[in-house]
Amino acid sequence: MHLKTGFPWRGADRPHPGVSTPEAWWNQVGGLLENAVKGIGVDPDIAAELVPEVQAVFIDPQNWLLFEDMLPVLRQLSDMGWTDTVLANHAPGLPELVDALEIAESIDLTITSASIRYEKPHPGGFEAPLEAADDPMEWWSIGNSLAADVLGAEQAGIPAILVRRPGDSDRVAETLDGVLKWIRPPGAAAS
Questions:
Q1: Which of 18, 20, 26 is CA-nearest to residue 51?
Q2: Which helix (H) or strand (E) holds 88?
């Protein structure tokens, strides 16, 4: 109940220029978390002490697991000639988190919505990676959110694949290696 509103990604239909620095992002989300903890009866002083702990735990690479198929598929895509970018509705610190994970060798760029003023599915959320990649001729969005990763990408003119979740989409893959059904080397005809 206490966490249904207030997160930047809950307002993806509008930019959030006021929360595009790590400090501003964590201040907004930290305030939301603190109020939620107080809302369930935790002493206000203890609630205020918990917020920095949440931040530290959340961005600690030891608290994140990769899907088993992630690294092999990223390597296959890189071997095909694709440049892999992470674009996520996520907290500041995502680039450092990705760098600390085993997938870092396959990721060329990591962009978090906390640094670009937009949350997916807003079209502005897809502009930063396109600009950073110098407007590539071909682009795919692969993700587990029908609204953010698939419908948002398709509205921005980017073909998309929904992974690990059922959904009303032209392209759905049960696992990440299922995306290879559609993605061919850049410039090759896709099926």
A1: 26
A2: strand 85-88
- Tell me: do 49 and 37 sit in the same domain: yes
Model confidence at 17: pLDDT above 80: no
Packing angle of the helix pair 22-39, 44-58 (nearest 10 deg): 130
Does one domain contain both 70 and 153?
A: yes
Q: Is residue 187 part of a domain?
A: no
Query: Per-residue DSSP letters for 122-187?
Result: SHHHHHHHHHHTTS-S---EEES-IIIIIIHHHHTT--EEEESS--S-S-EESSGGGGGGT--STT
Residue 52 and residue 14 in contact, taking contact as beta carbons nearer than 8 Å = no
Which residues span the domain enclosing 57? 8-62
The reply to whether 189 falls in a domain is no
CA separation (Å) from 158 to 93, 177, 179?
26, 20, 15
Q: What is the pLDDT of residues 47-95, one digit of tens each?
A: 999 988 998 999 899 999 999 999 999 999 999 999 899 999 988 889 9
Query: In whole angstroms, what is the distance from residue 146 CA to residue 86 CA?
Result: 17
d(CA 99, CA 94): 8
What pLDDT, on a 0 to 100 scale, did the predictor assign at position 135? 59
Burial of 159: CB neighbours in 10 Å, binned 0-12, 13-18, 19+:
middle
Report pLDDT digits (tens) over 139-150. 899 999 999 999
